[in-house]
Design a protein that fits this description.
The structure is a single chain. Helix content is about 65%, strand content about 0%. The protein is an all-alpha fold. The protein has one domain. Mean pLDDT is about 75; it is low at about 1-50, about 60-65 and about 195-203.
């Protein structure tokens, strides 16, 4: 389960930005191979204009990149900003699962510490990058996930300090719930439809 979650969240920005900048943003054309490239999406920028050939051999008009201030552009920036955070916190939680399961107290403690640090960094990045209206539900789900990660890390560390295995297990359970919430957020991204300008932004 966790491995599948990590795979899905590793594409959190790459795949989701591609969806939002093409089919999910009201575009009618399929993305070109260059448009699907990770470099442009990771940087938070949309692919450049592309033209497609029609059955008659004519080239269709190029589709412009999302304008600055548009929801697709803001969505791409938001998703690119949190991609690494999502990968980092899931990896830390996975390390906790393996370390604590083998009764490696030092490794277990380090993993819980890393989850707490990753959650704090993730929270700061969320606060610095406002989600467009089309991703408000995603943003809310991610923030709920971070609450679970913070609570789980705190409980796990308390359990380790008190040599209380029950608290460590409870903390780990909360981390797993946090990962499940992030996985749910990735699904919400795939269903989001971002188009038009951000409210309050002139066309």
């Amino acid at each position: 389960m966790l491995g599948r979650s990590f795979t899905r969240m590793a594409a959190f920005s790459l795949g989701a930005c591609a969806v939002l900048l093409t089919a999910g943003c009201g575009q009618s054309h399929a993305p070109s191979s260059r448009a699907a490239g990770s470099t442009a999406v990771q940087a938070g920028h949309s692919p450049g204009p592309s033209a497609t050939a029609t059955p008659g051999g004519q080239r269709a008009a190029a589709t412009p990149s999302p304008a600055a201030g548009s929801q697709p552009a803001q969505a791409a920036t938001y998703l690119a900003a949190i991609q690494v955070d999502a990968q980092r916190i899931i990896a830390a939680s996975a390390a906790r699962s393996s370390s604590c399961a083998t009764r490696d107290a030092a490794g277990c403690r380090t993993a819980f510490d890393r989850v707490a640090a990753a959650a704090a960094t993730f929270q700061r990045d969320l606060d610095r990058h406002a989600a467009p209206t089309c991703l408000k539900q995603v943003d809310s789900t991610i923030r709920s996930a971070l609450d679970l990660y913070r609570q789980g890390a705190r409980l796990g560390l308390q359990g380790l300090a008190a040599a209380n295995g029950g608290l460590v297990v409870q903390g780990g359970g909360l981390l797993d719930q946090g990962t499940s919430s992030l996985t749910a957020a990735s699904g919400q991204i795939g269903l989001a439809t971002c188009s038009g300008n951000v409210p309050g932004t002139a066309p």
